[in-house]
Amino acid sequence: MLSYRLPREPSGPRTTLWRRLKRLGVVQVADGLVALPADARTREQLEWLADDVLAANGTAGVWLARPTSITQERELAATLAGARATEYSELIAQCRAATDGDPADRARALRRLRGEWRAIGRRDFFPPPEREQAAAALRHLETSTRAEPVR
Amino acid sequence: MRWATRAGIHIDRAACAWLIRRFVDRDAEFLFVGDPAEVPADATPFDMRGVVLGHVGGDCSFETILRHFELTDPVLWRIAEIVHVADLDDDRFDAPEAAGLDVLLRGLSMTGTDEQTLAVSGPMFDALYEYHRRRTLLGREPA
Questions:
Q1: Is B89 in contact with A122 (Cβ distance < 8 A)?
Q2: Do B89 and A47 touch (CB under 8 A)?
Q3: Residues B90, A23: C-beta atoms closer than 8 Å
Q4: Contact B105, B121 (CB under 8 A)
Q5: pLDDT tens sequence for chain A (151 residues)
Q6: Fewer Cβ within 10 Å of end Cβ, chain A: N or C?
Q7: Residue B55: which of A23, A41, A51 has the nearest Cβ?
């Protein structure tokens, strides 16, 4: 867990921190408190962010925490899985939208969406069913870029 | 000289160790510690929290070391882009090599000790350097 407090102004460091936390896929436990499943990598990432907060005249700490009940732990995992499921669902919608485009656009969309799928995967600690569905949607899009006869 | 970093090295620390040994201190000796407080007084820490040679303002430690020792070799800065993207995954640079290198380094951390990771990754970074040196000289992809 990363606890942090940043001055309201300037807003730059807040925006940067928010963007980095979003990329890591953290769950917001409370105001100024975010969590990730503990491993060497997530810990290191939160530690660097803590240093960034300190450099921006804020206060920050990195903690190893354990929920006191299984229910609480499941809720956290479900929140994380739900957030990723939403991202995968958006990806599926984009795959479908791209399938209607012309072939060149489709190929471009496929490259971009594959990258997006990998990016979501890197912050996906409790893969929801939508992960496989998004992979299937990407395969479908890939097939459609090949099947199209030259016009 | 002795250099210290956190144990369990990944892409940034492996790349920094290679950079230090090849371009800063030929006789560099590396120590791996669990906590910044364990760094011996005669060792220079890198890629750890709160040290000079760490992440600075969005830069990874490899970039910080290049700046600190005023290494301006464009090939090293190209490698810095790869290490940055592999380590921070923020798409700041176009570095398609990053994903593969990151996977290899993570795999090395699973199959051997930090010393072994350095022993294997050293020649990998030498190869990366040579490839990008030739690319820079030729202005196109080398054969």
A1: yes
A2: no
A3: yes
A4: yes
A5: 999 999 988 899 999 999 999 999 999 999 999 999 998 889 999 999 999 999 999 999 999 999 999 999 999 999 999 999 999 999 999 999 998 888 888 889 999 999 999 999 999 999 999 999 999 999 999 988 876 555 5
A6: C
A7: A51
Q: Please give, one letter per residue, the 3-state secondary structure of A43-82.
A: HHHHHHHHHHHHHCCCEEEECCCCCCCHHHHHHHHHHHHH
ipTM greater than 0.90, yes or no?
no
Element of type H or E holding B3: strand B2-6
> Cα separation of B13 and B6, whole Å?
8
Distance from CA of B80 to the nearest CA of A (A): 18
Q: Which helix (H) or strand (E) holds B51?
A: none
Residues from B in contact with A at Cβ < 8 Å? 6, 8, 10, 49-50, 54-55, 57-58, 89-90, 99
Q: In what order do the strands lie in the sheet with B29-33?
A: B29-33, B2-6, B43-45
Cα of A122 to nearest chain B Cα, Å: 9
Instruction: Judge contact between B38 and B63, C-beta under 8 A.
Output: no
Q: Which of A44, A45, A117, A124 to mutate to test the interface with B (most CBs of B within 10 A)?
A: A44
Contacts of B93 (CB under 8 A, 6+ apart): B81, B82, B84, B85
